Amino acid sequence: MKKGSGSAVSRLLSPSSLSHGAQQLESLRLFLSRAQRRRAALSADAFPPFLAACRSFPSLASQTHALALKYAADLHPATATALLDLYGRRGLLRDALRVFDEMPLRDPIAWNALLSCFLRQGLAADALSTFRRMTEDGVAFTGATLSAALKACASLRAVRLGKQIHARAIREGDDSLITSTSLIDFYSACGLIQNAFDVFAGVDCDKDAAIHNSLISACVKNRRFEEAFSILGSATPNAVALTCAFSVCSRSSNPHYGKQAHCAAIRHGFDSDTTLCNAIVDMYAKCGELSSARLAFERIHRKNVVSWTSIIEAYGSHGHGVEAWNLFKKMEEEESSNGLSPNAVTFLSVLSACGHSGLVDEGRESFFAMRNKYGIDPGPEHCSSFIDLLGRAGRIEEAWHLYGELSRRSSKKLTSAVCVAMLNACRANMDLARGEQVAEHLLELGDSNPASYILLSNFYAAAGKWERAESLRRAMRNRQLKKEVGNSQFV
DNA sequence: TTAGGGTTAG
C-alpha cells in the first residue's frame, strides 16, 4: 500500500459513499488483506482512517485485531491511538491498555484516548488516577483532558477535585466551550445548579447548541422544569434540544408541551433520529398515553435496544405484563439478525413486568437466559427483582435457594435490596424463621434506608417480637432516620 | 494522522 492511501480510505468514509455500505466494506476488506501481506500498509496515514471505518463494521474486527496486535509495538502514535480508541469503543479494555503500554511515545492525545476508554467502561476512578498520573508526569493538558477529568468527577461526585479543575481552567485562561460545557455537566451532576448557571453566564455562547443543551439538561436533572422550558423556548430547535424537551415532559408527567415538541420534531425532519424517537416513546408512556407510545415506537425506522426497552418498560409499568413479554420475544425474533440483543436494562424491565403480572415461568426464563443465552451476569438488581417475583408467586423455596447462592458465592451481590426482596417474600409467605435470618443480614449490612428499618420492624411485629420491633423503631429515631413521604412500598 | 462538550430505557 502506497503512502497516501489514507486519503483513499478517508474517501471511503465521505458522506456520498456512506450509502454504499457493501462497497465500502469490500474496499476495507481489500485494504485489510493487503495489509496482512505487507506491513507497510500500517503506515500512519493509512491505518487510522481504516480503524475509524472499522467502527461501522464489527465483522472486520477480529482480523484487524490480530494484525494490529502483531505490530502493536511498532505503531506510529496516531495509529496506536486510533487502535486504542477502537478497542475502547468495543469494550476491549485489556487490548486497549496493552496498546497504550507498548507505545514508545505517548502524546497528550493518546492519554486523552485512554481517559475516554475508562469513561466508556464506567471506570471513572481509573480515569481519575490516569489524570493524576498525567499531572505527575507533566503531560500537557488539552480541553479534552479537562473535559474527561470533569466527567469522571461528575460520575464520582468528586466536588472538591472538580472545583480544583475549574480553578485550574480559570488560571490557564481556558474558557473554551468544551471545558465550559463539561463544567456545567459536572456542577449539575453534583446538584450545584447555581454554579452551572454561573459558568453559563460567563461564556459567550450565542450560537452554540451544545452549551445550551447542557444547561437544559442540567435544569432537567435538578428538576427545574420551568427554567428548562424557558431556555428551550429561547434556543433554536435541534434534535438534542427536542430530546431534552421530551425528557422534561417525561419527568414532569406533562405531555402538553411534549405534543408540541413532537410536531416540531416532525416539522424539522428530526423524526428519523432514533434517540429522539426513543424519548418520544418514553414521554408518552410516562404521561400515561400508552397507545401513543406504541404508535411512536412502531414508527421508529431503526430501532435500537433503548427503543425496545422503553416500550417493554412502558407496558410493564402499566400492568400489561403479557404484552411486555410478547414484545420481548418479538425483539429476540426480529432483531437478532440485526445484531441487536437485550441488555441488562432490558432484562430489568422484563423481570419487573413479569413480577407485576404474575408471569413466573416467563420471568424465570428471562432470568436464566440472561447468562445462558446472552452472557450477561445478573446483577443484584436483577436478583432482587427475581426474588420479589418468586415471593409474590409463593415460590419461597426457589427464592430462598437463589438467596442462599448469592450469600454463599458472592457477598457483593447480597445488597440490601436483595435482602429487602427476600424479607418481603418471607413476610408474604409467613416464613418467620427464614425472615429472621434475612433480617440479621440486613442489619449486618448497616443499611441506612429508613424503609428497610420500617420493614424490619413490621416484620418483627408480625412475628410477635414486639421488643425487637420497638428497639428498631428507637434505633431509627436515634439515628434520625425518617421515612420519606410517599415511600410506602415496603410498609 | 490519533482524542475531545450537549440527548434516550432502569
From TrEMBL:
GO terms for molecular function: RNA binding. PPR repeats lie at residues 107-141, 304-338. It comes from the Eukaryota. GO terms for biological process: RNA modification. InterPro entries: E_motif (IPR046848), PPR_At4g14850-like_plant (IPR046960), PPR_rpt (IPR002885). PANTHER family: PENTACOTRIPEPTIDE-REPEAT REGION OF PRORP DOMAIN-CONTAINING PROTEIN, PENTATRICOPEPTIDE REPEAT-CONTAINING PROTEIN. This is Pentatricopeptide repeat-containing protein. It comes from Zingiber officinale (Ginger).
